[in-house]
Amino acid sequence: MMPKLLLRALLLLGIQKAYSVDYPDGVKEIHYISAADNSSQPALFYTPEKPKEPTPLLVALHTWSGDYRQKASQVPTADWCVQQGWTFIHPNFRGENWNPDALGSDLVVGDIISAVEFAKKSASIDENRIYCIGVSGGGHSSLLMAARAPEIWAGVSAWCGISDIQNWHEQCSGSPFKRYAEHIEQALGGPASEHAEAAAHRSPIPWLKKNRDKLPPLDIWHGVNDGRDGSVPFTHSLRAWNAAVDEQDALSESFIADAWETRKFPEQSLKKFGSREVFFQKQAGNIRVSIFDGGHEMLPEPALNWLAVQKKGQQPKWNAAPVATLKGSADQTESGK
Q: Which end of the chain is more exposed for a tag (fewer CB within 10 A), N or C?
């Protein structure tokens, strides 16, 4: 029988069917040198023993209040890597986002790039199949890394990510999620409006705009109930889309405002992603955005199946059949914020 405290924790996280609650055997703590400041940084790492051929690498990014030891959001991704014979790394990138060295800083970017370099030196890696995934704060970091280091990735899967730090600070201030506004103030040294340049530098949107012609296949997902039942309004993902695509493919501000107010979309999609209905989906070039029937969460199995068919130098595959099942799990996990 599941211990009562563990069951209660899972229920609080909103997990309908529990994934594994601990990392699989073979995942170990390592330390590597970050080129950002020559410091030693921790991570969790797994690679198959004596693989027959170079392995895909999955870089899994922790959530807003997590660090490299976090379990709730990334144990399923580690399970996938063990089951599929991939290499896995879960870097710390300066820990929780109230830390001034964290929250999308240049140190964060350098740490994640150096984590990839560590994996390439420590394991046999297929450099055409390096992937990034994250939810919530990890979705923010995934969007940022897609834009700031686009040359690395064969695919990036970003879930419920914050795309504009100043905008999120305003949304959280005075709301039930005001602790996140306080976190931003701790990291920036004051309100985001008073540190607008620093907030923009740590936000994905300016970087997505700057490097939109270089972006890797980027799959942006957000639950339609997030921002009400969760902490990050789905408008962040719609505006990330606008930053990443050419002007003719962008959504109007009136469209975004109406979608937020009504949670309805004029171009309803009948597609499913995993077991969930997709209410809205738009794709242009290397970028896709989707709003699905859900909240502040990631669907690991369909997300990982999408990444599994992406390869650098090839056109994105958007609707390929699943390649594997994440054993012993549902297709849902909450973010763990």
A: N
